[in-house]
């Protein structure tokens, strides 16, 4: 019952609308200074650990420029730690969603993890995704891209909930929450900047 209660709590937190925490002056200051801000981290050390994280970063680019990088499978391995394979396997006729396959190597001690998720698009401001098949029991999250009032940059929010559905060391869950997620956001910022330099 305790495990079920913990899971229910995490699920309710995972579907809560992100964004309110960004209005805090201290968070705004850290974003302006170029930091990746991790607002909330929760993990469970049950037989199948679950994890939830909210994070954000400010990128000196438009939402459209960032969106193009985020939705390009060829770009993903450059900013997603451990990602060895990204492939689009289906797409809506109107482009409103895609089914994407990922293969991730979290640790040398574990085999690669393969999963397929559906990404639902509100271009270029919101992406919601959820696991539809593969090794993970549950995975879902949201990307939000909000241009700053002066139009000089975009605040990118990222929220992800993961339940592997099998036992893995708690340290790997904590690494994903506390290390890999900030690396995704800082890596995305670097990749967007690199693409901007390539543009004429």
Query: Which term fits the overall shape?
Result: globular
Task: Please report which band the strand proportion falls in: under 5%, 5-15%, 15-25%, 25-35%, 35-45% or over 45%.
Answer: 35-45%
> If you average the pLDDT, what whole number results?
83
How far the N terminus sits from the C terminus, by CA atoms, comes to: 59 Å
C-alpha Rg (nearest Å) = 17 Å
Separate helix tally: 4
Output the helix-strand order: HHEEHEEEEEEH
Helix/strand-derived class? alpha+beta
Could you give a short account of the major beta sheet?
8 strands, antiparallel
Helix content: 25-40%
How many strands appear in the DSSP assignment? 8
Low-confidence stretches: 1-18
Question: Order of strands across the biggest sheet?
Answer: 1-2-8-7-6-5-4-3
Can you describe this structure?
There is one protein chain. The protein is of the alpha+beta class and 200 residues long. The protein contains 4 helices and 8 strands. An 8-stranded antiparallel beta sheet has the order 1-2-8-7-6-5-4-3, with helices on both faces. Helix 3 packs across helix 4. The termini are far apart. The model is unreliable at 1-18 (pLDDT under 50).
What key phrases describe this protein's structure?
single chain; alpha+beta; 8-stranded antiparallel sheet; disordered N terminus
What is this structure's SSE topology?
Blueprint: H1 2-14, H2 25-32, E1 37-43, E2 51-59, H3 63-70, E3 83-91, E4 97-104, E5 113-122, E6 126-134, E7 138-147, E8 154-163, H4 170-198
Antiparallel strand pairs: 1-2, 2-8, 3-4, 4-5, 5-6, 6-7, 7-8
